[in-house]
Amino acid sequence: MTAGTNGGVAVVAIGRNEGERLKLCLAAALRQAPLVVYVDSGSADGSAAMARSLGCAVVELDPARPFTAARARNEGFARLMERAPHTELVQFIDGDCELEPGWLQTAAAALAGREDVGVVCGRVREVSPEASVYNRMCDLEWRQQPGEIRSAGGRFMARAGVFKLVDGFRADVIAAEDDEFCIRVRRAGWKILMLDAPMAQHDAAISTFSQWWRRNRRAGHAYAQVAALHGRGGERYFVSDQRRILIWGLALPVVALALAPFTRGVSLAVLLCIYALQWMHIARGCRRRGWTAREACIYGGLTVLSRFAALQGLAIYAWRRRRGKEMTIIEYKQVNR
């Protein structure tokens, strides 16, 4: 593996009904990069027109094929290569995120200094973690230790050559497409690096329980789909995640309910105690990472509850795969006009 000279950095942003968030996203990208490609997935809020007015190159996905973030990034990259074929570094960003000042320069310098690294990412922080307990959960999820990692998430800078080498994203993967992409990057011999530097602000905008539930249902679908692709071999990607969902979301409740008539309901009380212990176990792990007691409590409780939503996602994937259905996106955000 060799790293070529820097042929410039460009940005590929993707979005669907992100409204004002998208405007902030594109404006921040345009302040740092000479070329920004925006890919729109059937927005109903005028996103494409707004992006054009800011000076972005715009791709509007054909609605005849299922929308996915993976497909959007691939088509954005293809348009970028048409417009600027010598671009060597590409920053991918979502429409609900805003790049931090100086990030592109920091990331490009990191790649220039490490010829073995194909992808870099940085710290992400939630814009309004105090707005809802669900936003706070997202803010906690973004916390990751710097260093070599196995997946960069959907917001990262990649060498264009590496992206081409692995044929980009799999367009049919509806979520955790970043994990699936990074698996192939690492298998091709490249490293993925988390920098100790601010990369982006994220606006989850999750204000209701139903939104949070759909987001975790989507996560369950992602675990199942990516495990079906990469669950065998030494890494067994997402296999343990699926197992935890099946145990905590299905097996334990089924056993407790089956025993309830014979134990006069004691099995149900035991089940609640087991969930409480699991909550405490997760919270203790968070405390060891330096989180506050409140943060640890929130994360532990919602993590336990999320297994039931994720179980639905596993079931949806199994049903779709068995019947040969298309893998369509599971949305959780409201349309922003």
In summary, what is this structure?
This protein is α/β, with parallel strands linked by helices and 337 residues long.
Describe this structure in words.
- With 337 residues, the protein is of the alpha/beta class.
- It has 11 helices and 9 strands.
- Strand 2 (36-40), helix 2 (47-54) and strand 3 (57-60) form a beta-alpha-beta unit.
- Helix 7 (177-187) packs parallel to helix 8 (209-230) and helix 10 (266-288) crosses helix 11 (293-323).
- The chain is globular, with a radius of gyration of 21 Å.
- The N and C termini lie far apart (46 Å).
Q: How do the SSEs run, as a string of H and E? A: EHEHEHEEHEHEEHHEHHHH
For the terminal residues, how far apart are their CA atoms? Answer: 46 Å
> What does the radius of gyration come to?
21 Å
CATH topology of the largest domain: Spore Coat Polysaccharide Biosynthesis Protein SpsA, Chain A
Largest sheet, described in full? 9 strands, mixed
The CATH superfamily of the largest domain bears the name Spore Coat Polysaccharide Biosynthesis Protein SpsA, Chain A
CATH architecture of the largest domain: Alpha-Beta Complex
How much of the sequence lies in strands comes to: 15-25%
CATH class membership of the largest domain: Alpha Beta
> DSSP helix count?
11
Q: Spans of 5+ residues with little confidence (pLDDT < 50)?
A: 1-6
**Nearest-integer average pLDDT:** 92
Shape: globular
